[in-house]
Amino acid sequence: MERRIAVLGGGAAGMMAAIAAAEAGARVVVFEKNEKSGKKLFITGKGRCNLTNSMDTADFFSQVVRNPRFLYSAVYSFDHDAVWDFFESRGLTLKEERGGRIFPASDHSSDVIRTLDQSLKKAGGELRLNSEVTDILPSGEGFELKIKQGGKLSAEKADAVIVACGGASYPSTGSDGKSFGLLRKLGHSLGCSLRPALVPLCCEEAEECAYLSGLSLKNVSLKLVKGKKKLYEGFGELLYTHFGLSGPLILSASSYLPEEAAECELLIDLKAALSEQQLDERILREFGDNKNKAFGTILRHFLPGKLADVFPERCGIDAAKQLNAVTKEERARFLHTLKELRYHITGTRGFAEAVITRGGVNVKEVDPSTMGSKTVPGLYIAGEALDCDALTGGFNLQIAWSTGYLAGISAAEYIKAL
Fold it and tell me: Alpha-carbon distance 191 to 39, whole Å?
């Protein structure tokens, strides 16, 4: 009987693994619990699918939050250029946007999914939908899989298994974290506890945030601190919500948040382009030109939208106070608040709103040169199931493509040698 590879999960990593293995000559079947493949890919990048990033491969690893060194072999085996070539050679035109982000030219994630489905079919691989693998049992030289399909249970054999079921984020798409239970039964452990990452943050100042909900701040600098320790610093855009803060800067900061979230603060520099001296000079000019006006009336010269409304209380300066009566100490407080607007974190939103999962299979238990399990021969792990995560910008999908590709070709080589 022809030897076979079973791939668990029809997402980015799973489909890439299956295509790579099938194109290497292996017989492959993908088991996908949903009614279609790529359900999470479909919503990635707000439905546009940020496939990868053109950042130089040597710099790519600076965007990986956990275990970047583990990914060296995988990423260098199948880097962003390889991803570009993979899709364009199969008829999907790509484009590059701000920050090196790569998207399909059509702006439709469905075109990415269609390309993967067609590539698997052309390579001779099989995609089995509405099929959930509920158990993986080592059996002789291979594995026996327990499969639930349409309410019926069955068993099938496989000579190698690639687990690429995703993490626990966006569980409505099928990445509900159940695969970690299967991997634990096979002797694997988690590198750290599963937590939402690239996720909006909840703040103690929720009432203020709710008042400002919908306001977007651009070109601001943000620091995540725990006491005097800086955990993250970035520049870009954030968004006020009814519960706290979101937007690209906040999502990135969330990936560096320790478990003691309530001990952390966000410091926002609203005037990042100006030094304190330059900002002070501007404040003095505005105060001098408007000395008979109330403090509250000139705040919109410095602040967007409703943010001007909350600033008097934030600075401890009466909005009705005339500018010529504002003291030097009060002016210093105003400057300081502009350069360091503080929010106290109370926690994160849940997995339902998290772009990715932080945590996963301990990478010390996986061979980085093959993505193969160090303890279970013939078992491979790829994508978000691994304890690796990165910042926004296409980097997490690059991890999925790279680890999936390496797992696929490694599994194909493995079964050929049996």
Answer: 26
